[in-house]
Amino acid sequence: MKKRIILLIPLIMLIAVVSGFSQENITQLYDSAFKSHQRPPAAFQHDRHNEQAKIFDCGVCHHVYEKGKKVDGATSEDRKCSECHYKDDDMSLASAYHNRCKGCHSEKKAGPILCGECHKK
Ligand code: HEC
Ligand code: HEC
Ligand code: HEC
Ligand code: HEC
Asked: What is the dihedral of CA 82, 88, 93, 96, to 10 degrees?
């Protein structure tokens, strides 16, 4: 019994580490909250993207709002965009993604804007 528990501890630690850094594995976005997908997955190499784009504040995407105002310094990376942005139909979630992703790309004049540049076959 004791031996088993001792073996379990490193296993639990490994799972915690792997899941904690799992965003490193994101290479595309294909959100299962959508009822149906009309487009191929969107290219998004999470860590590489954020390094190249020099986004150091996780809250730029994983934001927290209180009483309609964005809370500086607070982050929500433990929650899916769809938890807060899926409202009845696929449109609400799609525009949350598009406003965040394309919004910054057009503001910075860097990064893809055209459908096929993100939704790659
Ligand atoms: C440019 C936008 C953006 C930035 C900046 C960003 N992320 Fe993410 N991240 C995403 C998106 C989009 C997802 C997928 C969310 C979903 O599935 O609902 C995600 C998912 C995650 C996940 C969940 C991984 C999984 O496998 O479920 C973690 C953890 C995470 N991000 C951590 C971070 C941390 C830590 C930072 C800051 C160092 C950060 N993110 C910055 C966009 C971003
Ligand atoms: C904990 C809940 C929560 C999570 C998680 C969350 N948001 Fe939001 N988001 C909000 C709230 C609340 C607002 C402000 C009210 C509004 O406009 O819906 C907002 C506003 C926005 C806006 C500006 C309004 C608009 O639609 O243009 C965008 C874009 C956005 N979120 C995209 C995202 C993306 C992409 C993710 C995942 C990386 C995400 N949000 C995760 C709650 C959340
Ligand atoms: C706060 C600004 C910002 C946000 C938010 C953002 N991007 Fe970007 N993105 C950039 C910049 C800047 C570049 C160009 C980086 C470079 O110079 O290579 C870029 C480049 C890209 C590229 C091409 C380079 C690559 O990594 O393949 C893709 C694809 C991309 N973004 C997808 C997304 C998606 C999908 C989202 C939303 C989940 C998103 N971006 C959100 C700023 C942003
Ligand atoms: C900057 C990257 C980017 C660009 C450019 C972009 N999208 Fe998206 N789009 C996304 C992301 C991220 C999602 C959410 C992830 C997913 O597909 O599940 C999404 C989701 C969608 C969805 C809902 C999911 C689905 O597959 O049905 C549709 C429809 C869509 N996009 C159509 C378009 C069209 C049409 C254009 C061009 C006018 C476009 N997108 C341009 C990133 C982008």
From this structure: -110
List the end-to-end C-alpha distance of the chain, in Å, as a whole number.
51
Report the sign of the C-alpha dihedral through residues 107, 111, 117, 121, in that order: negative
Which of 54, 39, 16, 43 is CA-nearest to residue 101? 43
Tell which one of 62, 97, 100, 101 to mutate to probe ligand 3, the residue whose CB is within 8 A of the most ligand atoms. 101
Q: Cα–Cα distance between 59 and 51 in angstroms, integer?
A: 15
Q: What is the pLDDT of residues 42-97, one digit of tens each?
A: 999 999 999 999 999 999 999 999 999 999 999 999 999 999 999 999 999 999 99
CA of 66 to the centre of ligand 2 (A): 11
The pLDDT value given to residue 56: 95
